[in-house]
Amino acid sequence: MPNYYEMRLVVGFEETNVVGNVYFVNHLRWQGRCRELFIKEKCPELLTEIADGLYLATLHCSCDYFAELNAFDEVAVRMSLSSVKQNRVAMKFEYVRLKNGSEERVAFGEQEIACFKRENGQMEATPVPSALLVALEPYA
Known about the structure:
With 140 residues, this protein is an alpha+beta fold. The chain has helices at 25-42, 45-51, 130-136; strands at 5-10, 54-65, 74-85, 88-99, 102-119, 122-125. Strands 1, 2, 3, 4, 5 and 6 form a 6-stranded antiparallel β-sheet that branches. Strand 3 and strand 4 form a beta hairpin. The chain is elongated and about 50 Å long.
């Protein structure tokens, strides 16, 4: 079993700019989408905690670009756990173009989230839910 969670996508025209390559901000959107699908598939009980007031606030996200992507490129976004500290989770994202059975690393990203709950009208740090920790464990 790979030590990453993978989301695959095919780039659409709406994700490209006037030059024809993928507009840089889409890589960050894909990070968020990958994280959301991970929760839906691997940790759906977290959705109940979110409905009950848990906030997953993004504190930091970044992306380094190595090669351009274009419309109809098939891309794998691979998320893995970088670290867990107190109420924070850091993740890494590898962006890989899939073509004719080969893989090309086209970008690398990072993201850090923090867990909060609203208490008496204030946002208070709360530990990372155990269900999320268990779901992330295989991806460390």
